[in-house]
Amino acid sequence: MGALDELYRHVNSPFIFHCEDDWEFYGGRFLDESFARLHLEPNCLQVWLRAHHDTNEHSIVWVDGLPRMDVNGHLHTAGRGMRARPWRGFSLNPGLRRYKQFGMFPFSMVANGFKGWAAEKTIGEYFYQHGYYAGITANPLGYCRHIGEGRHMEDTGGAPC
């Protein structure tokens, strides 16, 4: 999370495309669809690019004819004795997301020391409390898939790259 804080502090645009190196893209035009969606829905924080059947068991709901990640689904804890809370849709998966309106968003502060999915869940709760949700493209086949499962480096908590 600290590395994201360091990297993102150099962003000067209202949107950022976030992508890590363990994803394979198999479709195009996702940026056009994502920009249109973010402009249409001011409270849509990000647009997922995964296939509808590949969402790590997170549910999709349809609101006004557009798919969103279900903000009330998939109860689990973020660890350290926290009570079970629903996952709210925020993800560090590839995708276009709003950025500059949050100013210097401190991922590491909001993640509160959590890593991986627990950090995503904690950050998602922050955005949910501020009225945001995550969309997913209308393309049921999506545009990318994760190819790095089990082949990533763990965050050691060291200095950002």
Written overview of the protein:
The chain is of the alpha+beta class and about 160 residues long. It has one domain. It contains four helices and ten strands. A hairpin with an 8-residue loop joins strand 6 and strand 7. The radius of gyration is 15 Å and the shape is globular. The mean pLDDT is about 80.
Give the helix/strand class: alpha+beta
Helicity level: 10-25%
Q: How many E strands?
A: 10
Instruction: Report low-confidence residues grouped into runs of 5 or more.
Output: none
Number of helices: 4
Number of self-contained structural domains:
1
General shape: globular
Keywords:
161 residues; alpha+beta; two-stranded antiparallel sheet; 10 strands; globular
Summarize the structure.
The chain has 161 residues and is α+β, with helices and mostly antiparallel strands.
Architecture blueprint of SSEs:
Layout: H1 2-8, E1 15-18, E2 23-25, H2 30-40, E3 44-48, E4 60-63, E5 66-69, E6 73-76, E7 85-87, E8 95-98, H3 107-111, H4 116-129, E9 133-136, E10 144-146
Parallel strand pairs: 3-9
Antiparallel strand pairs: 1-8, 2-10, 4-5, 6-7
